[in-house]
Amino acid sequence: MRRVTFTAMVTILCHVSASIAEEPIDFSRDIRPILSDRCFSCHGPDDKARQAELRLDRRDDALADRDGTSAVVPGSPQKSELVRRILSRDPDERMPPPDSNRVLAEDERQLLIRWIRQGAEYTRHWAFVPPVRPAIPNAGRVELGVNPIDLFVWQRQEREGLVASPPAELYTLIRRVYLDLIGLPPTPEEADEWYARLVQITSGPVETADKVYLNEDEWQKLVDTLLSSKHYGARWARRWLDLARYADTNGYEKDRDRSMWPYRDWVVNTLNADMPFDQFTIEQLAGDMLPDATISQRIATGFHRNTMLNEEGGIDPLEFRFYAMTDRVATTGTTWLGLTLGCAQCHSHKYDPVSHTEYYGFMAFLNNADEPDLEIPNPDAEAQRAGNLAEADKLLKLLPRQWPAPKDWNELEPDELAFRRGFAVGLAFADWLATERKRLVKWQTLRPVEATSNLPLLTVEDDNAVFASGDSTKHDVYSLTFDRGFAGATAIRLEALPDPRLPARGPGMTFYEGRKGDFYLTEFKLTADGQPVRIRHATHSYAKNQFGSNPVSAQLALDGDVQTGWSTNGRNGERHVAVFVLAEPLPTAERLELRMDFGRHFSSSLGRFRLSATTQAGGAEARDLPADVDALLTLTEEQLTDADRTKLRNEFLLLAPELAKPAARIRALQRPPALTTSLVMQERAPENPRLTYRHHRGEFLQTRERVAQLTPETLHEFAQDLPRNRLGLARWVVSPENPLTARVVVNRHWAAFFGKGLVRTLEDFGLQGESPSHPQLIDWLAVEFRDGGEFIKASWSLKQLHRLIVTSAVYRQSSRVTTEHLQRDPENRLLSRSPRFRLEAEIIRDASLHAAGVLSSRMGGPPVRPLQSDGITEAAFGRPKWKTSTGEDRYRRSLYTYQKRTAPFAMFTTFDGPTGEACIARRDVSNTALQALTLLNDVMFIDAARQFGRRLVEANGSDDELVRDSFRRILTRPPLPDELKLLTQFVKAQRRRIATGELDAKAISGSETDDNKEHAVWTLVTRALMSVDEAMTRN
Amino acid sequence: MNARQLSPLRATRRHFFGDCGIGLGKIALGGLLTSKLNRSARSAPDRVTTNVQPAHFPGKAKRVIHLFMAGAPSQLELFDEKPTLSKLEGKPLPPSVIGDQRYAFIQPSAGVLGPRFGFQRQGNSGENISDVLPHLAKIVDEITLIRSVHTDQFNHAPAQLFINTGFGQPGRPSLGSWALYGLGSETHNLPSFVVLRADGLSGGSSLWSSGFLPTLYSGVRFRSQGDPILNVGSPAGVDTQLQQDTFSLINGLNKQRLASVGDPEIATRIASFEMAARLQSSAPELMDFGSETRDTFSLYGCDPAKPSFARSCLLARRLIERGVRFVNVYQNGWDAHSNVEGNVRNNCKATDQASAALILDLKRRGLLDETLVIWGGEFGRTPMVETNPALGRSLGRDHHPQAYTMWMAGGGIRAGMSLGQTDEFGFHIVERPVHVHDIQATILHCLGLNHERLTFHQAGRDFRLTDVHGHVIKEILA
To answer: Chain A: nearest CA to B40, how far in angstroms?
Structure first.
């Protein structure tokens, strides 16, 4: 019965549809979005979620015979099970199922039916088909001021019966292109100069606006001037840093500072230099792997070091490293491929052809790097070091003169005093020599025949030291085996050695939570031929706990408790020694085995160390003397040269308790000055690769089979000659066969100028993304950008892409919104006008400071802290206070504002600024009351208004002139008469209230000078003007 | 205005912007509501609304107060009596109990620590409550205790994020943001999602972030000192008249601009300034505790002149009275790695009376039925002792994600019952496990929102608070 009804219904529907129109169905445009959104989650690429073993994302599968029926029978909706199901009223049969929250609209059902009747053709998703350069429509119309962008856009407009808007007014245009290209408004002086150059009157007087034309040559010059401004890089870096999830802190609970700004400066400088985008990509993904990688190329790899680092006590560092890896995969997908790769972390992608295994295959490329802090060489630091050493030498020579003198020497003549002091030093030195010679122990270093651990790779180096590399855990166990040289040993010495390859130069591997370079040895156990070796006691040259005065010592590494042990906090980059004295001399054994346990609530294993043995009777004691001094101590007085004696004497002086204080200063000068560091990626040594596994359900602990480096099959091939590593991946991303990257990049830049992308889902070019509004334009731009051509001469040049966009007529249209616009093109998809949109948080702040005349033009360097109210950063762990920078640093461009992930700069947050927690391809653009309150009441804006007001008072003009000037500094254009009237009324009203004492000029202006009444008036005017809609809008 | 009418569930995106508390003024938008101009949120414009499905049922709760015990209180000292631990004191737990659980600080072989306080049966429900909670003991018949909560995270920041956002890493929308997204706002004069006493928190501002939802759903953190809402006070020297003059100058200029440019977005800007003016005038009234009686202050045990957890509970009540949808009150400092006894005693001194007072106060004002109150931390604490000479710790407890206790009361929740049980060590749940995602599903359910349908499309798929998990805890629903 139901069947009959159904057939009848299909027949009717099909006839109805057929009679309406037979416009050909475009699978990509009309059908795939429906199938993807309503069907693929159960009948798509994810084989784990697939129902009834039916997949509809591939034609062969959709057409396959399934016990006599097929989901889709081309040309025959009546026979297609799909059609029967989407029309069924039986809740058990109906598709999508009623409980799926997915519904097909009537017109969507009809589209599916028509598609099947027309033959059910499938085409590949547009974004996975490489772009081919489309012909430019009406190419003959290209001239100065009309470029292919216009011809593509106009063609579409003509089809829709719309016309483009006239050009914007010149001041609007000048302000627009300044804000877009350098993120700052022009000064009135700049605006007037360009106005004069741009204005071209064809006939009649200037006042007739529609007779004013733009001088195209001058426009090109303006654009070139802005493109070569250093502010260009600062403006465009901010957008890139949104993608890079840049911040100046580590995130999570501790959220401590990190030194990442050299990477930020790299982005600014590189954009200013217009590095081609393919190179820009390769350096950031794999700069360290380029032949003879430069420091700059290594800094560039900071892109993927912008992931967060959890430093909370007790975390599993490998777990959070895994999360950082998932972030790297997702970010790479968003930034370069416009693919939501992150969707395949837990299972195969529900919509796009990316399998679970391919996800981890992609991760495998990025997963084989260590993550060190790169010390950046600095000629200033080298000069400083040389100076420090010279100063240390000088002080060292004078050191004996500071030998303490007994009180009764005060009365002595200088010569006598010097003599007695010299004598006292000489005696003490002789004593020291005698003692140290007696304490001297002859150590023989032991070379392990085997060195293994639970995770870090232990490598025995030429000097018999062991170097640990790779990952470490909260509890690492090192096992070392020796097969000779230990018979008769009475004590074993452990040297913890510094090394530039280690965090803060070691000797430990601690890289989070604790002090960098620290270690924590919890157990030291020896066995000889399998028999435990009894250790009587242990001594150390130095011991300090990171956590207050709680005990640590080498002795505590013998107590069987893995919570107690030895650490040398506070003196990283130095050698430290522990000596373990045995209860009995070691027997002659085949094998001596040493087990050392490391770690506390954070990972803290030794990074470089060496073991030695002595057979000296009576054991030995840990001493703090360098090896070369030890060597001199073995010589007799006669064997010592003068230089040797000086060296010994200096060592004595530096260690003498009597001189501890001045010696500490000398030691500090002798230490290399701290260099600026930046977080980088460093590909691991071939002998210690990090393997990647598939993680069941995306969970860290659920590792399954190993996965090799793999790119998604659906995308372009991974060329044979590319290495299967991070560098190969970077080259694969920018290879000309890649259908996505060039489109994704031009689309994102388009959106920067037009508010929205040609594909509005900037981050998603997959099946769930939106189709392009101008498919041919995006392809033309992508090919022109990638390959270069007549309009973008240098391939991958972002500056030339920007130039092309801002020299189009479409860019220069008026943004006036007409009733026709609202009716025919409400969302401006057809670009019938220039968009208006609110400026980004940073630009709003910079533009205000710039108008006020206080914006600093200094570039680069460590982050700064502009004015901000108290009580904001206290939300974060440890309730940190905000320490406002002084002087010029209060007024640096917003790019340089200190970005704390767990307590971002409040004004930026209010205006939708990012937190640096995730890759952001497009920011929210909200319009809220809190924004109004910020503009009117925030300390930073009040400060700007006061400084602005002060400048106006000093300019000493009439009310009209000052209103005009402040208006133009903020809004560029001259005020209209009505606007002028409102403003001058406001001036008069406030001046009156100030004069009567109703308002407190001092409180408003913050100034106690005589002219503070006028200062207050103009503070109030600029405060209001900086808050008008137009001030925060790109018009 | 009726909240249901204001629901964005049926409205356009723009309509919703008009309705959300700190968003836009609805009136000023006038006839522009049908305009399809969009503000380019991170999600494609029209998806915002199409993916939000109308709720199937009217929610019993209209508002939520979440008393968040940051640092993780010890359930073994407060709610979950385990005499066995006293008997075993100093001895390790059987390894079969511990399994392969990872710990933050202690070794799994650490000895057991007996409860530091006594317990008594309380109320008609006869629930066992610790002696350190004398005030809660008196209202135990008003609440539902869940002694079998468990979480996936065993560190503070991830676990705080997990319970607030359903995910262990920053970047997802918080509970309050989801609630606003789902229900809109009932107030035009105050922010609709307010965060109190959020200082020094492990999870930082991500705990009340709107994540990938539009930023206007973010929680607004009240500062503990000075003007609670940042910049709500006019600057020095600016009196009411001057502020009004300034608003009218700005709106005057904006109106002229609107007339010449025609962009409806300017109308929205005008509306947002009008709302800012309202916010400036309503905030002082909110913070003026003068209308509260001495009886109320003594009920909460608070001094209205001093910031405290108790004063924040009272402020939370004032906020929800004024139509605020979601309030977080944080008490930070339960992280008892050492001296769990002193830690619990001090925190209870700060929170016990006020938490109970909030329930009593809401009840006597007839607000409890429509206000959901939640009390709890991010995880529990170990039955084993934490002792560590190198960290100077003794008689503490480490993090324990397997089992802990929370309580809920008010709108939509049954009164005077408990759910779930742990084993004799308080280590594992032996009856009715309740996952954090279940708590979240239940909170949304009480608000009339189906956690499986409240979704937002971004990064290629639909996201929800409870990921692909979570079941409403039916047993505790009223």
So the answer is: 6
